[in-house]
Amino acid sequence: MFKMIANLIVSTFRHGEEDARDEIDEILREFGDPSPQCYLTKISGIVFAHSTIDPFEVSLKLRNLVRSEPWKIHYILRVLPLEIILPATLENILNASNKLRQKINDNESFRITIEKRHTSMSSSTILTKVASVFANKVSLKRPDWIVLIEIVGDVAGISILRPDHIFSSVLEKRNNAI
After folding, report:
1. Are 39 and 49 in contact (CB under 8 A)?
2. How far is CA 175 from CA 70, 73, 76, 94, 172, in A?
3. Is the pTM of this model over 0.90?
4. Is residue 110 included in any domain, yes or no?
5. Chain segment 84-131, per-residue pLDDT in tens
6. Does 55 fall in a domain?
7. Number of folded domains that form the chain
8. Same structural domain, 19 and 56
9. Separation of alpha carbons 83 and 8, rounded Å
């Protein structure tokens, strides 16, 4: 039975997983989550987290935190909100994408981003199958929406999000440098 509970993927430096886990835990508590759950994975540089705070709100709060206190984030490189997490099968990924597709209006563009680690699933097969769910225009450079498919071993996380829902501490610090 599948028991993974997460709504955030946190990336960090190789071998920085424990520090990133502690950092995201502390920050989520500061944001008002009394008991976030943070999990180390078998993959170097990747931590899963679950917060009672909406994962898209976490991205916004992290962006605001970097603007006001950039020194507070040392180990977190990127945070990706997840809407659905499930066993990594093509059928599950297709069903989840189909379930979330109504977020994108007919006149809006999208792109599919697939990031996979420790899996033999074919990116091109996933891309072809998931793209068939959408009738919208594709825009690789400036999409209105990103269909994000994150596969970590036997776990897949799916989201349909705006480009600014992806938090990158490096980009935020660079964009806010004086």
Report:
1. yes
2. 11, 15, 17, 35, 5
3. yes
4. yes
5. 999 999 999 999 999 999 999 999 999 999 999 999 999 999 999 999
6. yes
7. 2
8. yes
9. 9
Closest CA to 160 of 134, 126, 128: 134
Say whether both 39 and 78 belong to one domain.
yes
Distance, CA of 63 to CA of 141 (rounded, Å): 22
**Phi and psi, residue 111, nearest 5°:** -140, 155
Here the tokens at position 98 are 């189909």
What residue ranges in the chain does DSSP mark as E strands? 8-11, 37-40, 46-50, 78-81, 84-87, 110-117, 145-152, 155-161, 167-168
Q: 46 and 62: one domain?
A: yes
Assign 3-class secondary structure to 72-100. HCCCCCEEEECCEEEECCHHHHHHHHHHH
Q: Which residues contact 102 (CB under 8 A, 6 or more apart)?
A: none
Domain encompassing residue 109:
84-161
